[in-house]
Write a structure and sequence with these properties.
By secondary structure, the chain is an alpha+beta fold. It has helices at about 10-40, 45-50, 55, 70-90, 95-115, 125-135, 150-170, 175, 185-190, 195-200, 205-220, 230-250, 255-265, 270-275, 290-305, 310-315, 390-400, 405-415, 420, 450-455; strands at about 345-350, 365, 365-370, 425, 435-445, 460-470. The chain has two domains: about 1-315, no CATH class; about 345-480, no CATH class. The strands form two sheets. The chain has a four-stranded antiparallel beta sheet.
């Protein structure tokens, strides 16, 4: 079945497989570090409770039979080890079935985690990683030619990712249509990075060009991913460049890095050779064994059938964003920031050791790793690592109401729970339980250049209200509120 192979995409296969495996490695390490405190046996939303629900019992996860934090860690660290071997390229040196089995193994392991992760794993890039892992599993090893249908289906994934994001923006918020969205977005995005303030303070004409560039990259360029070479490679380069701008101006977990990796499905070896002569343009073998070809064609047909639902969604007036149409998170609908928030609110969590939380009590703030808190602290770069608690704190501030997981989070702070405190950058009480905790809401904005020079702050803020009034571990109300 040599007609199924295309040896012009050997370099693309290397990038697709090793790059996707690298993101899996980060995802498994993130899970090992954060899952037990967020969703474990004493987590904020315990998996064991979720699996008792009818919806939870239907999920395709190994934890349906039994969950324990130890089992979760074994799966996460095992997935990390397998992913590391694929990053190194060792399984790709053997028969085609070896990387295929290993990629499907980490796909199944991560699927087991995502499907019980509830709101902490309810992000579009989780489904993107699952879909990408399933696709690159069918690219084989160096002993077979890259199957052309899988190369094209990976471009179809990039098309849905980019065009879906472009359409959701045009349908969702007039600020994308009147070219003003990026007057706000760099400041109000979930987790700014060190260069976000610099980008925000650029002149408004620059932001309009940014929006136009975004529309060009997401609404026009994706169609050229299916064009003959070198046009397809040029389209991929545009996708890569626009994603790199998002990488240097924000923290969107692995969304942008994985998009860059997947865009290489449209880059051919001859084009790369022209840019980097050291990379061969000759390609490798053209052989595709019959058994491997049959599997590839069966999966191709399967993906083609599943593509009907996201294809229909792309052109629907009620387009869904980041939606899965099946339990395996394959062939999903994608999109991001269909609406842009104009103001930034932050929930600041504080505690005190005072007997009574009256006006003279000394309140100290808990500091999160990524989300803004201390106005003098420069935003950090964490992506492609995913700080799940910090992201949920951004959504919490949008709604101006506490949720079940946040109420449990406050209880864990009152208990000085070690696992929960490890999710934070700073515990002001050094492991000692506070007597009271509370949550206040502040309006944040980036300091202007003049404000930055005069007071050395990165953020300016003002209090707008109380999200959760003082609560204690004993459930006592403040003295001023007792009868």
């Amino acid at each position: 079945m040599d007609w199924l192979g295309d040896n012009d995409y050997e370099f693309a296969r290397e990038i697709l497989q090793r790059g996707t495996a690298a993101i899996y490695l980060i995802a498994f390490l993130s899970t090992a570090a954060q899952f037990p405190a967020l969703l474990g046996e004493r987590g904020l939303l315990p998996v064991t409770h979720f699996l008792r629900s009818p919806y939870g019992r239907r999920q395709p996860t190994i934890f349906r039979w039994r969950y324990s934090d130890r089992m979760l860690r074994l799966i996460a660290w095992g997935g990390a080890l397998v992913s590391a071997s694929l990053v190194a390229g060792l399984p790709q040196l053997g028969p085609a079935w070896v990387p295929m089995v290993l990629f499907l193994l980490i796909w199944a392991a991560y699927l087991s985690i995502v499907t019980v992760g509830q709101t902490f794993y309810g992000f579009g890039w989780e489904s993107l990683l699952l879909e990408a892992g399933f696709m690159v599993a069918l690219l084989g090893s160096s002993q077979v030619a890259p199957p052309v249908t899988i190369i094209w289906l990976t471009r179809w994934l990039v098309f849905r990712l980019e065009f879906g994001a472009g359409m959701i923006k045009m349908r969702g918020d007039k600020s994308w249509r009147d070219l003003t969205a990026l007057n706000y977005h760099h400041e109000t995005q979930p987790m700014p990075n060190p260069l976000s303030r610099f980008a925000h303070l650029m002149p408004r004409w620059f932001h309009r060009i940014e929006v136009l560039g975004n529309h060009f990259a997401q609404l026009i360029v994706p169609f050229y991913l299916f064009a003959p070479q070198p046009v397809a490679s040029i389209a991929a380069a545009v996708v890569v460049l626009t994603q790199l701008w998002l990488v240097v101006t924000g923290n969107f977990a692995w969304l942008n890095v994985l998009t860059i990796v997947l865009a290489f499905s449209a880059v051919s070896d001859p084009v790369i050779h022209r840019l980097i002569p050291a990379i061969s343009a000759d390609g490798g073998t053209t052989e595709v064994p019959l058994w491997f070809g049959v599997i590839v064609l069966a999966v191709t047909a399967f993906i083609a059938v599943l593509s009907w639902w996201p294809l229909r969604n792309l052109f629907s007036r009620h387009q869904l964003m980041n939606a899965s149409f099946n339990r395996w998170h394959l062939v999903n609908a994608y999109g991001a920031f269909g609406s842009v928030t104009k103001e930034r609110y932050e929930v600041i969590v504080e505690g005190t050791q005072a007997e009574s939380p009256d006006d003279d009590a000394e309140w100290l703030a808990y500091e999160f790793k990524g989300k803004p808190g201390d106005p003098a602290r420069i935003p950090r770069q964490y992506a492609p690592y995913h700080l799940r608690l910090d992201w949920l704190m951004w959504f919490l501030a949008l709604g101006f109401r506490d949720t079940l997981w946040f109420r449990v989070f406050l209880v864990r702070l009152l208990e000085a729970d070690a696992g929960t405190l490890k999710l934070l950058r700073r515990d002001p009480f050094s492991g000692t339980p506070p007597r009271w905790v509370r949550a206040r809401v502040f309006l944040y904005r980036f300091a202007t250049r003049r404000e930055r020079r005069s007071n050395h702050l990165w953020w300016m803020r003002e209090e707008v209200g109380m999200l959760v009034p003082p609560v204690s571990g004993s459930g006592r109300a403040p003295a001023s509120e007792r009868p």
